[in-house]
Amino acid sequence: MRSLFAAGVVLLLWASALEAQPALPIFDTHIHYSAPDWGEYPEERILGILDRAGVTRALVSSTPDEGTLRLHRKDPARIVPILRPYRTREDMAGWWKDQSMVAYLESRLALGVHRGIGEFHLHGGDIDTPVMRKIAALAVGRGLPLHAHSDEAAVVALFALEPRLRVLWAHAGMSAGPEAVGALLDRYPSLSVELALRNSDVAPGGVLDPAWRALFLRHPDRFMVGTDTWVTSRWEALPGSVDDVRRYLGQLPQGVAEALAWKNAERLFPK
Questions:
Q1: pLDDT tens digits for 224-259?
Q2: Which pTM was predicted?
Q3: Does some domain include residue 39?
Q4: Crossing angle for the helix pair 234-249 and 43-53, nearest 10 degrees?
Q5: Helices (H), the chain
Q6: Could you give the number of structural domains in the chain?
Q7: What distance in Å separates the CA atoms of residue 208 and residue 210, rounded to the nearest whole number?
Q8: In which domain, by residue range, is 153 found?
Q9: Residue 232 sits in a domain of what CATH number?
């Protein structure tokens, strides 16, 4: 009981401190605006949600890519487009071995607006393919980061395929713990990690986990935050998810909190 009471007191103190200072601007590094969203959530409504959440920039990839471009046309200063290797959801099942995928990516990148390739889903055993070798070469040649929703084995395999890659690891691997994440960050200097959908792991009950906190302090320049609107219902949840992010960021030193909130993402995707 005492520990629960102490945790509650700590949360109240942090909440009071957060209310006393302006909300941190957020660069959300995991947004999708895919076809099922378009009817219920026109572009103006999406931008209003981002305004309400204090999201000043957003890394957006969509299925199809037209969703990203719609948002970007409405707010090019805020929306940072990246290109998914998915023309339709069916592409998720085998895009890494689809011989037409490289030509598709090249044709869309010719538009000149995309700042990366992803977010894509990939497992370690899927990477050593002719298509992936060409995509890795394309990314390095154009200076584009890869946004990878993958397991730990896939991160290792990507860098084995092409050590010059820059990789943004979605969801911190979804289930990887701070020890595993830290080991990969130590091993690969051009790996960054975003924390979309990991709020309950990073800060269970709103209290920042000590092991995650120690890792953020050890690698303050390598982490970013995000929400992930992977289904339409996630749009209404986005402001609350951002509030949860700010709550645990408020338990870090100010400079580290600002790095995670927006500065690290700004460095990877400068204006």
A1: 999 999 999 999 999 999 999 999 999 999 999 999
A2: 0.92
A3: yes
A4: 20
A5: 2-19, 43-53, 66-74, 101-109, 130-142, 152-161, 178-187, 199-202, 210-218, 234-249, 254-258, 264-268
A6: 1
A7: 6
A8: 23-268
A9: 3.20.20.140
